[in-house]
Each structure stands twice: as C-alpha cells, then as structure tokens.
Design goal:
The chain is of the alpha+beta class. Helices cover about 35% and strands about 30% of the residues. It is elongated and about 65 Å long. This is Gem-associated protein 6. It comes from Rhabdornis inornatus. Keywords: Cytoplasm, mRNA processing, mRNA splicing, Nucleus, Phosphoprotein.
Amino acid sequence: MNDWQRKSPLDWETYVNKLVKVVAVEKHEYEGWVLTVDPVSATIVLATFLENEKGSVSFIMGHAIQEVKILQEGDSDMKQRLARISAPEESQAYSPEELEKRKTALKTWLETNHIPVGEQGEQGRTLSVAGVLTIEPPYSPEQCSSTNEIILSRMQGLLQGYLDQQR
C-alpha cells in the first residue's frame, strides 16, 4: 500500500476542486482538477478542460499513484464548472420556482387526462401516479420510476409527448 492509499477520506477531500499534478507508476504524469477521490480504491478522478469548453475526465487508480502535488486552488467559477460535470444536465437548468411550476403543470395535465396523481415526500416534490409510478424533479421521462416495466414505458411515452407539446 502506497502513501496515497494510506490517506484518509478527510485528507483526500482537501484535494477536491484543486489543480493537481499526479505522478503515477512508470513516471506517468497527469494534470487536472480533482473532481473526487474514491474512498475505497483511492482512485483519483481528474477533469481537464479543452479550448472548446468540453471537459474530459480521467481516472488514476489509487494503487498506481506515487505523488499528488497541488498546483492551484480552484476559484468559485472553477468549482461551478466542476460541479456541472457530475450534475445531470436538466437539474441545473431549473430554479425551485420553475420546478414547482413544472410539477403543477404536469399534475394538472395528468388530472385533465384522468390519470390519478398525487404528491409524496416531505416537500411533496415527487409525483405519484396511480400508486405504481413516481416522477422526480425535473419531471421528465428519465425521472420516472416503477417496478412495472409496461406502465413505466407507457408513462414515459406520455410524458415525452406532453413535454414535446410544451415546446
């Protein structure tokens, strides 16, 4: 076990959102912004940004890491860029008010089409359809969940049709 693997998750956390240089076995060197460190394998996840704003993610296995050197602290803009890499695209696009509006509109549409719907969860953010399907924010087909594959598929199709009409 190397020095990097011996560190604790709290030690690894100090590297998150920082530009680092990683020296791995056979003198391979990697440079990038630390997204996270896997606490089980000590694998470091690095993000690099190309000129066209596209991001690239690399994984350096914990057992191969020989040295990690911090080159630069991340500012708030960089922290936001890094957070956008791992956050789902749609969840960033909506404010709490917009999500509430989407939920209300979808619930009204479902009720108008005689589909039994209710709200569940502490803040009522989750829509429950006929007690067998749930729809989480931001209320698109990808956020539908059900153990019944047929109901899931049909509801996702209906929801996609509804969203297409809204555009």
